[in-house]
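Design request, tokens follow.
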């Protein structure tokens, strides 16, 4: 790395909390123009590292050296401001080079003789401090914050995050340090920020779980794993490929070391009285070999089958629902019939009523008028934005066991509390640790486990991706894709939505809710196409729009999503093939021309075949009822 362009150099950085070592002897640098994404599992020190770099937290050992006069903008994961401040006052609250110069200038004017005024005038010019407030208002407006006199205590989580983000952008820093910048932002704001950060030769070091955001912004990935740091010269997709190569090579090295270790261990154990006469270099090599052999082989491709309890054909019927808070309309003549095994995504700007809507469905918030019928077999599992609440002095395993010791999966199978936690990356040691020792992301993961431990058949997930690491998200995606129940997801994570949902409800505000038959990327492509058409032919745009994305009304049958159409066609082929195989087996068994071993094999295959055929036929019938 060029010394001239080096912004930051970290050497031998170590940090621990008690006996928990987060990382040790980390060394890396950040140069001008680098866009680095930092990835790691929850609890391995991502936020701690950013806090150390920003000076908000101390280190055990090592050095952090910034280039002189470097402007650094730090966006915290959970920004805090005094609640009595106004929005515009908050832009001056956290000290930075510009606000410090403004304060010094104002103090100088109030001091008799105005000592140092000439120098401060030069600094005001250099830092462009004269128009700081105007720039603040301009960026706040771009982030859809228009009431500059509103108190911080009155803001939502998303609005507060945008104020903090504005504080970083106003500074126009040389280096952006961003901790989960997309958390609590709606999809429109995420895409705006993505466009902003892609412009110019910005230098960025950030933590985010948003994989599309990471892929499009960053040209390098740094990964903390096993207390070490690994670097990858490419975007997130490149990182995934190269990381797997690293893990495969490490696993091969561990297997090889284990084979050699058994031989060397036998050598070390023989004739202990003669140990002093043995070659010292061989003893030293043994201990190095032991370190390699005792490493854990990575197995992060975790799949588990937890189907959820039985759910009947009737899920919920909403007819002519209305809901408003004063003049703010949430639902207006909303009618919808939810299908069995449906996976719905909900998108829309903050404040359009997405969270209120899912609370109404569960009976947590009353609607003004209309009719809502919930099926008798429906068991909701609700993961809410504000639902995180634990006894901090309780052990992790006890939090889950307070709900149930196990989940009955049917067919005599059970999933214990310990097994569920292990699936979500809680090691046995971590399970017997106390809740207060968990990181924010680990607490979110534990909260998710408490929801699943109730074995629901209808999952309602309101921003489940906030604060979860990428590995946890992959496990949750796999779980939801195979979940034998209904799902509603509210999320700003586009990658997550694309993986999980079949169709979208789009909340446009004022009770205008539209049903789009596809995932978020398909919806975004459709919107872009509408914008292009809008420039040429407005009437064509409106006609196409009405045909593609319809307002939810009474008795409007839901259309098949693209995924469901593909599944329907695949089922027809599968059923045909299974029926043909069944006929062949029955013919062979009744023909009397096969040996005993083949009779045994076919007799075992036949009941499995019948079960698979019944399951696929039932699913085909369900899909055939959708237009």
């Amino acid at each position: 790395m060029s010394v001239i362009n080096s912004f930051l150099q970290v050497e031998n950085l170590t940090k621990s909390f008690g006996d928990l070592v987060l990382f040790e002897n980390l060394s890396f640098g950040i140069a001008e123009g680098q866009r680095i994404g930092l990835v790691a599992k929850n609890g391995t020190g991502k936020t701690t590292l950013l806090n150390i770099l920003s000076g908000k937290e101390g280190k055990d050992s090592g050095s952090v050296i910034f280039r002189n006069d470097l402007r650094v903008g730090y966006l915290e994961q959970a920004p805090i401001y005094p609640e009595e401040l106004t929005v515009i006052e908050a832009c001056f609250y956290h000290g930075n080079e510009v606000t410090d110069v403004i304060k010094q200038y104002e103090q100088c004017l109030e001091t008799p003789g105005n000592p140092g005024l000439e120098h401060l005038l030069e600094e005001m010019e250099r830092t462009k401090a004269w128009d700081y407030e105007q720039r603040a208002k301009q960026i706040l407006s771009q982030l859809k914050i228009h009431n500059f006199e509103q108190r911080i205590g009155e803001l939502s989580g998303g609005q507060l995050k945008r104020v903090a983000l504005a504080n970083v952008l106003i500074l126009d820093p040389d280096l952006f340090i961003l901790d989960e910048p997309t958390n609590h932002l709606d999809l429109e704001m995420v895409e705006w920020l993505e466009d902003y950060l892609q412009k110019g030769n910005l230098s960025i070091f950030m933590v985010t779980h948003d994989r599309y955001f990471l892929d499009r912004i960053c040209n390098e990935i740094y990964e903390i794993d096993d207390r070490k740091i690994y670097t990858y010269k490419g975007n997130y997709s490149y990182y995934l490929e190269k990381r797997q190569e690293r893990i495969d090579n490490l696993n091969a090295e561990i297997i090889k070391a284990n084979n050699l270790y058994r031989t060397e261990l036998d050598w070390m154990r023989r004739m202990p009285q003669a140990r002093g006469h043995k070659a010292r270099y061989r003893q030293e090599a043994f201990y190095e070999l032991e370190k390699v052999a005792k490493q854990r082989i990575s197995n992060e491709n975790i799949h588990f089958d937890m189907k959820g309890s039985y759910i009947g054909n009737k899920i919920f019927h909403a007819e002519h629902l209305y809901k408003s808070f004063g003049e703010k309309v949430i639902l207006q003549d909303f009618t919808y019939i939810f299908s069995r095994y449906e996976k719905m995504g909900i998108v829309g700007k903050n404040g359009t009523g997405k969270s209120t809507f899912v609370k109404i469905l569960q009976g947590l918030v009353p609607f003004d008028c209309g009719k809502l019928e919930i099926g008798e077999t429906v068991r909701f599992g609700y993961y809410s934005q504000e639902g995180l609440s634990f006894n901090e002095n309780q052990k992790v395993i006890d939090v889950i066991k307070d709900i149930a010791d196990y989940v009955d999966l049917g067919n005599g199978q059970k999933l214990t509390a310990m097994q569920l936690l292990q699936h979500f990356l809680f090691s046995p040691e971590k399970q017997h640790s106390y809740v207060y020792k968990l990181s924010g992301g680990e607490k979110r993961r534990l909260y998710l486990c408490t929801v699943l431990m109730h074995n629901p058949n209808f999952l309602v997930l309101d921003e489940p991706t906030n604060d979860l690491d990428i590995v946890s998200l992959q496990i949750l995606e796999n779980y939801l894709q195979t979940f034998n129940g209904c799902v509603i997801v509210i999320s700003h994570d586009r990658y997550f939505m694309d993986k999980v949902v079949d169709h979208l409800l789009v909340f446009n505000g004022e009770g205008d809710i539209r049903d789009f038959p596809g995932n978020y990327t398909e919806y975004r492509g459709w919107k872009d196409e509408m914008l292009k058409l809008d420039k040429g032919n407005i009437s064509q745009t409106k006609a196409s729009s009405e045909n593609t994305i319809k307002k939810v009304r009474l008795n409007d049958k839901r259309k098949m999503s693209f995924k469901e159409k593909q599944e329907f066609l695949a089922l027809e082929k599968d059923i045909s093939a299974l029926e043909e195989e069944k006929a062949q087996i029955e013919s062979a068994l009744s023909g009397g021309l096969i040996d005993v071993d083949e009779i045994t094999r076919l007799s075992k295959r036949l009941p499995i075949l019948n079960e698979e055929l019944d399951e696929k036929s039932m699913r085909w019938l369900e899909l055939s009822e959708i237009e």
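Comment from the thread starter after seeing the answer: thanks! Residues 562-624 form one domain.
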